[in-house]
Specification:
By secondary structure, the protein is of the alpha/beta class. The chain has a single domain (4-323), classed as Alpha-Beta Barrel (TIM Barrel), CATH 3.20.20.140. The chain contains eleven helices and eleven strands. The protein has helices at 44-60, 78-88, 107-114, 120-133, 157-173, 187-196, 215-222, 243-255, 278-282, 291-302, 307-323; strands at 4-7, 10-13, 20-28, 65-68, 91-97, 145-149, 177-180, 204-206, 227-230, 262-264, 269-272. The protein has a nine-stranded parallel β-sheet, with helices on both faces. Strands 1-2 form a two-stranded antiparallel sheet. Helix 1 (44-60) packs across helix 2 (78-88), helix 4 (120-133) runs parallel beside helix 5 (157-173) and helix 5 crosses helix 6. The longest helix has 17 residues, at 44-60. It is globular and about 60 Å long. The N and C termini lie close together (7 Å). Bound molecules: zinc ion. Zinc ion binds at residues 23, 25, 69, 180, 267.
Length: 325
């Protein structure tokens, strides 16, 4: 059992995590955004100021730890995260990982895997392991968890390589895995593949499960011993469901005794890399990373969820995920 976690500022006891947002982003770009930098360059100063302002508001809402679930190929910048964490006084835990085939930078390891005598799974394992145990990109900043993702359809052979590597490294290091599903699809397949490769179910969060409102489906996934994330609050756009449906699912799952396996978040992106989409944000007034603590948790309380149960979802479950309990 690990009783510490790697944040971007160094090792921290899991007891110090406190109220935690389990799946968010500081910077995020769809792979290929860098090809558009002539039109939409990264403004480091403006992005830094926005990140510090946002995370200061998040801290003031009661949150102490912010998990940045940005995979390596989606614009993860750990030096930037370290500066932001220092300035905003919030714990940031960064990931090692790779995004799904359709939206990530999948070309590189697919090329590697097509070479004679290739073993891309081993190469990806080497990458994840080094980023967790030694550091990322010649820094001493270590990843605290592994991020994996699948798309809409089946788990592709590329995604399968990434999930296998993640499971093996999680088993070796006792570092958790947090997944992206496309609106909850393939959740059982993800859990099954990760567990079959040796990952501890108590160290897996199957993400974006709010995309499905069928609690029998949630219960089937929970039956595998994993956590599930209602982690896109405020992001009311397909394939997600409105907050009201997520709240109703959480209430039903708590009634059925699953509070110890639920985690909540927004999947918010503070700085979208590349061209901006202000029209989208104008339609999502609640998609801001203080929404859960300011609005959703109080709404759950008025529907009968106890203070202790709120603490389980926001404090105990994230801590236990890292401890592998
Ligand atoms: Zn995300």
């Amino acid at each position: 059992m690990a009783n510490y976690v790697n944040t971007v500022l160094g090792r921290m006891p899991t007891d110090a995590m406190g109220p935690t947002l389990i799946h968010e982003h500081v910077n995020f770009g769809f792979a290929g955004w860098y090809a558009d930098r002539t039109v939409a360059p990264f403004d480091k100063k403006a992005s830094f100021d926005r990140a510090v302002e946002t995370l200061t508001a998040v801290r003031e809402s009661g949150v102490r730890t912010y998990l940045d679930a940005t995979p390596n190929d989606s614009g993860r910048d750990v030096r930037f995260l370290k500066q932001v964490s220092g300035a905003s006084k919030i714990n940031i835990i960064c990931a090692t990982g790779l995004y799904n085939e359709a939206q990530g930078g999948s070309a590189y390891f697919k090329f590697r895997n097509a070479l004679p005598f290739a073993n891309a799974v081993e190469e990806i394992q080497e990458l994840f392991l080094k980023e967790i145990t030694e550091g990322i990109e010649n820094t001493s900043i270590k990843a605290g968890f592994i991020k994996v993702a699948t798309g809409d359809g089946t788990i592709s052979s590329y995604e399968e390589m990434v999930l296998k590597a993640a499971a093996r490294v999680s088993k070796e290091t006792s570092v958790p895995i947090i997944t992206h599903t496309h609106g909850g699809k393939l959740a059982l397949a993800q859990a099954d593949l990760l567990i079959s490769q040796g990952a501890n179910p108590s160290q897996i969060v199957i993400g974006h499960m709010g995309g499905v409102s069928d609690i029998d489906y949630h219960i089937a996934v929970l039956g595998m011993g994993v956590y599930i994330g209602f982690d896109r609050f405020g992001a009311d756009m397909p394939p997600e469901k409105p907050d009201s449906e997520n709240i109703s699912c959480i209430l039903k799952l708590i009634q059925r005794g699953y509070v110890q396996k639920l985690v909540v978040s927004h999947d918010y992106t503070i700085n979208l890399l590349g061209r901006q989409v202000p029209q989208l944000l104008a339609h999502l007034p609640n998609w801001y990373p203080t929404h859960v603590f300011k609005n959703i948790l109080p709404a759950l309380k008025t529907r009968g969820v106890s203070h202790r149960q709120i603490e389980e979802m926001t404090v105990d479950n994230p801590r236990k995920l890292f401890e592998g309990e």
